[in-house]
Amino acid sequence: MSRASALYDLGVQCRELGQYARAETLLRQALALTSGNSPRDLALVADASNDLAILFKHTGRYDEAAALYRRALTISRRVLGSDHPRIAGLYHNLGGLEHARGSLAPAERFARRSVAIRERALGPDVVDVARDKAALAAILTDAGRHDEAAELLADALRVFERTPDCESHEAGVVWHTLAAVHNRSGRPDDAESAYLHALDVKTAALGPDHPNLAVTLNNLALLYHRGGRHERAKATYRRCLDLLAARTGEPEHPVWRTCTSNYARLLTELGQPAETRSRLGPQDGCSDDDLPDGVAAE
């Protein structure tokens, strides 16, 4: 194994553990050491660019992520052609990035391309296609197309339930999105159950302190907040913020900004002193909406 490949593998491991600063250093080093034009070198550049883009998307550096995803897509098309499952994975990731930016129309286009390419290559009943359908469902949920989203989520869950490792992070993301569908359809009790199950599944897959739990914690806290369960909302917001502060080191992280603002609003409603709220820092990301979750294609 080359040094660049070893650095890449270690960078991916650190990213998956939520060790984002270390992962960025390793992935940049892998890219710097890969300068050839052989198929192997080009594949490594595409893979490292994709993984670095995933990291940047998780930490809110969306423009950098977009440039790296497109670099990976250009290289991968040249090496693999336009209909390879790896191309579908990059469309999946671009869709997730546009979704995070709130650009639903391009997000849906990318997500549908991902589903179409992967279904043609692999058939409809594999985990990768289920993951693509779940990502598309999350986009449709935010677009208010709840029935279509629920149908896609049911398809995805059937695949996960037939898969030996169905208690995976991917399954947790499906449950998170299903909770959002329930919530926006006026079923808060079903939403709470689904968010709690999503947390259980994601915690089992990632551990209790992984930053990818934060988006589900924020949405669960917001559900409690809306339902007048203020003490439970406070505890859940705090858990979300503590987790992000400890693991990402990024006060500009989009989930951090949203959760901070939602928590500050709750404290205001409860008459908490201004100095208590001021310790939370900038509060410009307030959102009445559930945050989307997503799994990047590796």
Automatic annotation (TrEMBL):
Gene3D superfamilies: Tetratricopeptide repeat domain. It is found in: Cytoplasm, Cytoskeleton. Coiled coil: none annotated. TPR repeats lie at residues 4-37, 46-79. PROSITE patterns: TPR. Belongs to the kinesin light chain family. This is Tetratricopeptide repeat protein. It comes from Dactylosporangium sucinum.
